[in-house]
Design a protein that fits this description.
Largest sheet: 2 strands, antiparallel
Structural class: mainly alpha
Number of strands: 2
Distance between the termini: 20 Å
CATH topology: Beta-lactamase
Order of helices and strands: HHHHHEE
Shape: globular
Strand order of the largest sheet: 1-2
Strand content: 5-15%
CATH architecture: 3-Layer(aba) Sandwich
CATH superfamily: DD-peptidase/beta-lactamase superfamily
CATH class: Alpha Beta
Radius of gyration: 15 Å
Length: 115
């Protein structure tokens, strides 16, 4: 898939807590796709949800083409739109800071650290 991953095995089970930790601390793109598929049924359906939410938030310079943020033609945003999205996240989902403030932790009995 490219980018950062934790090399999910299709036979393993991780909790939502573990997945969020991997996403926020390690930028685990494989976990992002797995969560997208779990939430929306497919990555494509989740990306549509992302674009719908972006429009709702007034993110007029944003078009998502994938859920993980890796470069893709037409996948664009602006710093203003990122600020709108960040404000929404922090105001309405403040527990995200339980994950985004992790300096070092473990997952699967291995150390994970922010870069």
């Amino acid at each position: 898939m490219g980018g950062s991953q934790i090399w999910l095995d299709p036979r393993e089970t991780l909790s939502v807590d573990e997945m969020l930790k991997a996403i926020c601390v390690n930028s685990a793109n494989d976990c992002v796709v797995a969560m997208a598929e779990y939430i929306a049924g497919s990555e494509e359906a989740f990306v549509q949800m992302m674009n719908d939410k972006a429009k709702e938030l007034g993110m007029n310079d944003t078009t998502f083409k994938n859920c993980h943020g890796l470069d893709e033609d037409g996948h664009v945003t602006s710093s203003y739109d990122i600020a709108l999205m960040s404000r929404e996240l922090l105001n309405n989902h403040p527990t995200i800071t339980n994950y985004t403030t992790i300096w070092m932790d473990t997952l699967r009995d291995r150390k994970v650290a922010t870069i």
